[in-house]
Specification:
Layout lengths: L2 H35 L3 E3 L2 E6 L11 E4 L7 H6 L3 E6 L5 E9 L2 H14 L4 E6 L2 E6 L5 E4 L5 E7 L9 E4 L2 H16 L12 E9 L4 E16 L4 E10 L2
Helix pairs in contact: 3-4
């Protein structure tokens, strides 16, 4: 190999290494730019208390509200319902969020109806055409519109560095009513073993970052009871989420 060929080869290798370094730098900058506006959503552990709703005069402790350190005005408690704070712990805003709640509602209806039968209370739930109905001559009949509860939307969630309060997402009423009924019927016969059968509540999220890329994530939300009052007339506990891989 001549000296001219060696020089040409060295120049080519140098150009290749320079191009490779430039490519790696561009890719690293792209990753840093994406990370700078990528959202990261998280649900906060929420402590709540449950009681009968004085407005609807329901039979179960289906009125769940967040338990706060400070005193809350009674009128505010009556007009509110349990929500779970949704925070954005990422660096960029999340926008155009679509929320979808789900849980094995038919399975839970079967469990609750079985407990009602064992407790000798003439009541049963029926789930048909996306509507959850309580049929009973002894208890107050009611209907919960699951079709209007399972989907929701949020315009945007700012990063926690900008908005520490986050966004409150409502827990579906149908889930709270069935769980409250299960606790009520279990308390009537003093048998709480079936409370371990309460299924997880799942929240699926789809959203966009400020760069226009679409993201998906989901959470399993677990109910944990701390205490039950009387014959299931009230209880309190907390809801804790786990992000699915």
């Amino acid at each position: 190999m001549t000296i001219d060929q060696v020089i040409a080869l060295s120049a080519s290798l140098g150009a290749f290494m320079s191009a490779t370094a430039a490519f790696l730098a561009v890719r690293q900058n792209t990753k840093q730019r994406e990370a700078s506006y990528r959202p990261e959503l998280a649900l906060t552990r929420t402590i709540f208390t449950a009681s009968k709703n004085p407005l609807s005069k329901g039979s179960f402790a289906e009125f769940w509200v967040e338990k706060k350190d400070e005193e809350v005005l009674e009128t505010e408690s009556i007009l509110s319902s349990l929500t779970i704070p949704l925070h954005n712990v990422g660096l960029g805003a999340a926008k155009e969020l679509s929320l979808k709640w789900s849980f094995p509602i038919n399975q839970l209806v079967s469990i609750v109806n079985e407990k009602a039968q064992k407790s000798l209370i003439p009541a049963y739930f029926e789930f048909d055409n996306e509507m959850l109905s309580l049929k009973s001559e002894e208890l107050n009949a009611s209907t919960s519109m699951w079709s209007n509860q399972k989907n929701d939307s949020v315009d945007y969630v700012l990063p926690a560095s900008t908005d520490q309060e986050g966004v409150s997402v409502k827990v579906p009423h149908a889930y709270m009513e069935l769980v409250s009924a299960l606790i009520y019927f279990s308390s009537k016969e003093n048998d709480y073993h079936s409370l371990s059968d309460v299924p997880l509540l799942t929240l699926e999220l789809e959203y966009f970052d400020i760069g226009g890329d679409k993201h998906k994530t989901s959470f399993n939300i677990e109910l944990n009871l701390n205490a039950i009052h009387g014959d299931g007339e009230g209880f309190y506990g907390f809801m804790q989420s786990r992000k699915n891989a």
